[in-house]
Amino acid sequence: MRISVDDIIHRAIAKVSSELRKLSLAIHDNPEVALKEKKACKLLTDYLKAKGYEIELNAGGLSTAFIASYTSPAGHKGLNIGFCSEYDALPQIGHGCGHNLIAVSGVAMLLAISEVLDTCSIPGTVKLFGTPAEEAIGGKIIMEKQGVFDGTDLLMMVHPTPGYSGSWRSQCCLSMSVEYFGKASHAAMAPWEGINAGSAATISMQTIGVLREQFKPEWRAHGIIAVGGQVSNAIPDYSRIEYTIRAENTDDLKIVRGHVLRCFEAAALATGCTRKVKEEYAYLDNQDNPVLGRMYEDLMREKYNEPPYPNAGGSTDFGNLSHDFITLHGLYDLAGTGVPNHSKRFTEDARTETAHERTMFAAEAISRIAARCLLDQGFWDSVKKAYGNRLACSSHRHNSDRHLVK
């Protein structure tokens, strides 16, 4: 009896679904923040080693990054397809972005496409990239700069949200840390001898708050005072604020960055403090391939009989990959509750059976798209053409230092 490719994928994922559920819960119940995902990395790589995959640890120089790869017995001259898993948690919130599910979705897609390569006897390579620190410093950006993704024809992943989409245009974002250095003094005996670094942090926050009146609706600037002082009876000589700014494209991000940097400078001038600004790599806007995105949305609409979820902000380091590779960052509905990411309720929903089942279907949908790229040359040609057209029309081609907006 002949079996369809869709059936191969469905059976491959169904076969390991209960195992992946256990992996997901183990990661969820042991949340680890950026670059500290040691348990999650070991759980995933141990599982894949047991399945016979070749594992490369410390990918891109990151201790919690890895690559699991498989080449078809028919040879490696076909497509080189890559999937991404994320597994870092949010401080205090835990897996409020569902990265425990993203972790196992990547494993499911790797297993499914490996089975397709075997059963259909077609050449090609499939890889799973374990990508840490998405919530903080941008692990994928570092890995790309180190050449980890070089040679990949197609990169795909899925992410839980309050709805599904195959055309999510994420926001560019840039994280900034600002330290203020003042002079300590007794707050009652000789406050005039001090230079208040805590006041500099406060003035920065207030100035940026006033600045928002001139922001475009899609611009964002949000931050916290990480260190404002130690005791109330001493003028603090040190403070630190953490800020993230967002915009729809890199041109606007540069404008927002300039405004915010002037606020940081003004606070230093007003208080007499000196300052030091540190900037992380900028997350670029995600640009899903429209051909891949349409097929993904068709599959999700067929399953759930609902329209796609409208774009609603947020950023990802996967966006940087979308500027250099053919990509799809498929969104799917976590649990049908409409709860937003980065909330305690989302964390709770991310360990439910419903969330797992929806994750497995999203992984199946992405696998079906990847398989079509492998088997349908006409479809793959249309995917490449759409990518080429975007590159030709784009006004935001970046130089080698483009990841850090200056």
Q: Give me the oligomer status.
A: single chain
Assigned CATH superfamily of the largest domain = Zn peptidases
Q: In what range is the share of β-strand residues? A: 15-25%
Cα shape: elongated
Protein name: Peptidase M20 domain-containing protein 2
Domain Peptidase M20 dimerisation: 175-267
Pfam families: M20_dimer (PF07687), Peptidase_M20 (PF01546)
Family: Belongs to the peptidase M20A family.
Q: Can you walk through the features of this model?
A:
It contains eleven helices and twelve strands. The chain folds into two domains: 5-170 and 283-393, Zn peptidases (Aminopeptidase, 3-Layer(aba) Sandwich), CATH 3.40.630; 172-279, 2-Layer Sandwich (Alpha-Beta Plaits). The strands form three sheets. Strands 1-2-4-3-5-12 form a six-stranded mixed sheet. Helix 1 (5-28) crosses helix 10 (353-375). The chain has helices at 5-28, 38-50, 99-120, 139-145, 197-211, 250-271, 290-304, 318-322, 344-349, 353-375, 377-393; strands spanning 54-57, 66-71, 80-85, 125-130, 154-161, 172-181, 185-186, 220-227, 234-235, 238-247, 274-279, 326-333. The chain has 406 residues and is an alpha/beta fold.
